[in-house]
Design a protein that fits this description.
Blueprint (H helix, E strand, L loop, with lengths): L2 E4 L4 E4 L6 H7 L7 H6 L11 E7 L9 H6 L7 E3 L9 E5 L8 H10 L5
Parallel strand pairs: 1-5
Antiparallel strand pairs: 1-2, 3-4, 3-5
């Protein structure tokens, strides 16, 4: 069973392989959206790009490949950013929610998250 380590929230969450990352985050009460996303998210269709996450660790194939929609919407964003609504969890990974407004201690939080092994 994959583990999603949410860096900002300091939590590890179990999920099933094949689950949508947005649905996992919302089910577990993660702060996936900033203010604009709270009032104007598209409900998971990939149109609003408010469910941005940064993939900070995990195996190369921890998520499904980027969809064509993601490639279009994220073409000028960092390569490790994904739309949670378009990403299917395949194996354990480390995620930073709301990477467009990282916490001031993001680097130390990511370093700590990476220092602890993810269960396989």
């Amino acid at each position: 069973m994959p583990i999603v380590r949410f860096v900002r929230e300091g939590r590890d969450v179990k999920c099933l392989s094949g689950e949508n990352l947005r649905e996992v985050a919302l089910r577990e009460g993660m702060e996936l959206y900033g203010f604009k996303g709270i009032i104007g998210n598209c409900g998971g269709s990939g149109q609003c790009i408010t469910c941005l996450v940064s993939i900070e660790g995990g195996k190369g194939g921890s998520l499904s490949p980027m969809t064509n929609l993601e490639k279009q919407k994220l073409k000028n964003r960092p390569k490790n950013w994904r739309l949670a609504c378009q990403a299917i969890v395949k194996s354990s990974l480390i995620v930073l929610t709301k990477p467009q407004s990282p916490p001031s201690n993001a680097n130390s939080l990511i370093k700590e998250a990476l220092s602890n092994d993810l269960p396989r």
